[in-house]
What we know:
Elements: H1 3-14, H2 18-25, H3 41-45, H4 50-74, H5 79-95, H6 108-118, H7 120-137, H8 140-157, H9 161-177, H10 179-187
Helix pairs in contact: 1-4, 1-5, 2-4, 4-5, 4-6, 5-6, 5-9, 6-7, 6-8, 6-9, 7-8, 8-9
Amino acid sequence: MTIFLLIAASYLLGSIPFGILLTRAFGAGDLRQIGSGNIGATNVLRTGRKSLAAATLVLDGAKGAVAVLLARHFLPELGDQGAMIAGAAAMIGHCYPVWLKFRGGKGVATMLGLSLALAWPIGAIFAFLWIDVVALMRISSLGGMVGAVSAPIAALALGYPVYAIGLAGLAIVVLWRHRENIARLRAGTEPRVGRKKDAA
């Protein structure tokens, strides 16, 4: 497997819209016509199907993790760089899937998955802060952004400079994908988890 094939495979893996597939398969409707229209787990939760939301979260995270593992298995000679590139390609696929006219999710779950696969302590810090902020503030988007931003900082602190650079780039993507949420946070109008009009 060449690096170009790895990138393509990781991108295509990341672009699988599990949220849409699961909600359709289990009769929960077209996810793009529900809530915020986003394809991620938070929007799946708005269907009232917690099990589907949990499955979407796990599968979206798995896309990033599997991409990293593919790189390590097929191109071990590329080391940290190959793993980071593959994980990043999967996340870009999730955020900008070719199947959905490049209108995908916001990347938080996929970034968490690839972070765990790169080095589990990085992913653990990411997950802890994400969950903690959501539990305290009840704002899904804020928790996801805090978790994403923490990943490159954790990577640098733990001695993974290659991962720190790559994760910093992905954190910027997450913030960009949340630009509307950021505007609502600044205006004090970002809905909280558990409310029907939650738009995280």
